Amino acid sequence: MLQSLRISNYALIQSLEMQPNSALNTITGETGAGKSIMLGAVGLLLGNRADTKALLDEEKKCVVEGSFQIGTYGLEDFFKANDLDFDSECIIRREISPNGKSRAFVNDTPVGLDILRELGLFLMDIHSQHDNLRLGDGAYQLGLVDVFTQSKTEFEAYQEAFGIYQKTAKALEKLTHEAAEMKKEADFNKFQLEELSALQLQAGEQESLESDQELLENAEEIKSKIQEILGQLQDDQFGALRLLSMANQGLQQLTRYAHKFQAYSERFQSMVIELKDIAASLEDEDAGLEVDFEKLEIIRQRLSNIYHLQQKHGLDSVEKLIELEKELADKVFQVENLDESLEKLRIEKTKAEKEMLVQAKALTEKRKSGFSPFASQLQRLLQQLGMEDARVEFIHQGIAPSKNGVDQIEILFSANKGIKPQALKQVASGGEFSRLIFAIKYIMADKMALPTLIFDEIDTGVSGEVALQMVRMMKEISKKHQVICISHLPQVAAKGDQHYFVYKDNSSDKTISKIRLLGKEERITEIAKMIAGANPSASAFESAKELLAN
């Protein structure tokens, strides 16, 4: 239920605030005073697009804020799913800045318009002239049938089955396409895989082979140079180790003369030890290195094969070639198992399609079960609204499965005796449409948990007893739902539990719209003016009092 509405700097509204009653609220005022402007502002709370042209003062931001009582609506899961704080009082706010930036908040948490639109579906149903256009749309009519027949369970079951079928069908289509492409490349991939597999590549081997090649290619020079170095180190008379040994003995003698030379001696001994270790390592290298032209040729050939494959595939390492080999192996494996995979998906698709059609049949039967009672109820309500000869029929035909089922319906309507029912967009006048829409809203209100219904001049084209019957039905709706009705009829205005009056204020430089809640005497005056014009007679006042009394 809408508890309060605040609008500032929107169109002709400088500042407006109202706290509607939980039952029937009527809003009246002269044409152009701003009644429909209020609906535009409410639309912002429900996620409609914003426009800076709507700013009254282009240098200030526009703010529209609505407070809703939602404690009994069961929206906790919605708030949790969208990471919003839940409270029994929900405050929605829209702000439009002068630079055109629009922001939306739910309980002070910024949200996107998609979330606002989804939340709005649980809070309000606004009738406008757009509903008249939508009523001729088959999808909209199908939605009405679903609400009337309470087909939510069947519809959700169908949508789940349809989603599984669609997913499986797309997977089969994708694999079929991939299979055709993969089979074209199968022989080439297999050849490339065999070429790579034949080498039995090992991670890190390229660096090792290149190092071995470097040694073998220079083996004679390396051995010769090692021998030369060993001679320089190990010669019995002039080798570096011999000379260093003599120097080491001298240092040891120095330590006997002064303790400070001990550190030099230790450092020198460490150097000698390191040099001896180098000499030993060079001897090992010399012993382990052989001039082996056959081994060198094997290494050269293997590296040539590796370089060839790297150049061929545009890769720069053995590791990447190994990765390519795995990818090719996967492709070859997939091709070899394509038929099995395709058959498996075909079976899954057939199974999913059967389940979808089972759920579609259940949904169709549920929908069809509502055609006759829905039509009868509509006809009965239309008769109460002055259309004694009204006839309503539902035409159904099956269609290919879609997200909404396998049904296409069309509501046929005739307002006059002897005239065959035809499609709504072809036969209904404005007044007939208003009454038809109202009758549908009346039925839907009993089927849906909509807390607030807003009617924007739904009484267009009706008067007299029909208007009284319409407002009686509004009163009936308002026992379970909050109703806000913008009206030009005194019969409707008089029955509101609260009566708001919208008017223009021309006292300043710029015309602005204002709204006020009318007291008892003010209501009499306003309704009298609605009956007889700006200067109502005494009889108009009496008629106004009578309408209010009844």
From TrEMBL:
<dbReference type="GO" id="GO:0005524">
    <property type="term" value="F:ATP binding"/>
</dbReference>
<keyword id="KW-0067">ATP-binding</keyword>
<keyword id="KW-0175">Coiled coil</keyword>
<dbReference type="Pfam" id="PF02463">
    <property type="entry name" value="SMC_N"/>
</dbReference>
<protein>
    <recommendedName>
        <fullName>DNA repair protein RecN</fullName>
    </recommendedName>
</protein>
<keyword id="KW-0234">DNA repair</keyword>
<feature type="coiled-coil region">
    <location>
        <begin position="321"/>
        <end position="355"/>
    </location>
</feature>
<feature type="domain" description="RecF/RecN/SMC N-terminal">
    <location>
        <begin position="2"/>
        <end position="506"/>
    </location>
</feature>
<comment type="similarity">
    <text>Belongs to the RecN family.</text>
</comment>
<dbReference type="GO" id="GO:0043590">
    <property type="term" value="C:bacterial nucleoid"/>
</dbReference>
<dbReference type="GO" id="GO:0009432">
    <property type="term" value="P:SOS response"/>
</dbReference>
<dbReference type="InterPro" id="IPR027417">
    <property type="entry name" value="P-loop_NTPase"/>
</dbReference>
<dbReference type="GO" id="GO:0006310">
    <property type="term" value="P:DNA recombination"/>
</dbReference>
<dbReference type="InterPro" id="IPR004604">
    <property type="entry name" value="DNA_recomb/repair_RecN"/>
</dbReference>
<comment type="function">
    <text>May be involved in recombinational repair of damaged DNA.</text>
</comment>
<keyword id="KW-0227">DNA damage</keyword>
<dbReference type="GO" id="GO:0006281">
    <property type="term" value="P:DNA repair"/>
</dbReference>
<keyword id="KW-0547">Nucleotide-binding</keyword>
<dbReference type="InterPro" id="IPR003395">
    <property type="entry name" value="RecF/RecN/SMC_N"/>
</dbReference>
<feature type="coiled-coil region">
    <location>
        <begin position="209"/>
        <end position="236"/>
    </location>
</feature>
